[in-house]
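Need tokens for this chain, all 352 residues.
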Amino acid sequence: MKLKIKIILITVFIALLSSSCKKENIEEPVIVEDSIIIEEEEPEEIEEEEEIPEKTGMPSPLSGIYAEEEKVNRRPVAVMFDNHHRARWQSGLKDAEIIYEFLVEAPYTRYLGLFLINDPPSLGPIRSARPYFVTTVLEYDAVYVRVGGSEAAKEDVRTLKIADIDGLSSANKVFWRKSHKKMPHNLYSSMEAIRATQEERKYRMVGEFTPFKFHEDEMDMEGSVANKVIINYRKDNNTEYTYDPDKKIYTRYKDGKLHIDEIDESPLLAKNIIIQVAKTRVIDNEGRLEIQLIGEGDGKYITNGKVIDVNWVKKSRHDKTIFYDLEGNEIILNPGVTWIQVVEPRTEIIID
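Here are the structure tokens for all 352 residues:
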């Protein structure tokens, strides 16, 4: 009897408590038996991979840069650029894929720019040929654009049957002078005019030459540090490159000034720098030079902030100059613009 009374009292108590909670909007107590708390794991952050732009077209044999097939399959054009201080700065040189810097009569140097995939609207100032420039043009089976030359160079052009466009014999529609510079440092042309003349003269439209080898994607190499490269050709004639590790590119300076293009004042850049040491001697009273490009020699290859020693071999005027590392492997370039600095053996070269 007592137990039944207790149960009734407890039931009444709970009923009154429940009623009181509802009136005061107080939540009823909840009894949880054997509850298990499961912590939800935070979803892992998925790193988005950087999208690599799809390459279209095909790689240029001069630079490894991808471009439209119709441009890549053309014949290269080699343009002779003036580098006298009164000729600076050059126009269209930034669009060349390979550029050579050679000594000419002291204290000057001159450039040979090789073009394939780009068509600059202005090219110049254009200057005269020398035999070692002709030898280089032969390597690329290029259409040679110049204005005159030494007697030996002009004879080479004739006997070697170079596809030649000479400013001293061509019509004004190919070359013209600009008034902002003084003669002889003001003769210009354009790629459009050169290509039209190439076709009119029925020069072959497709080149036949052995290209450099390029990595599909750029690669770093083992070597010594090369953040700054200084080449002292002559007194007050030096070439300098400084490396940008973020962009992985070299910026070019000439005689202490930033080397820019006359078209848009953009700086000239290099992905690859090759220093080729070649025997050099003066051969006449005018100070003209003989530079031995046939045979073999040594040099350096520089890319992505590193430098290695190399050797070079060229068997004949028409053969390609091949550069090898010290283990005998042909060097493979990174895709991009290549500057080839041809120097005499006594040239001071500083690499830091």
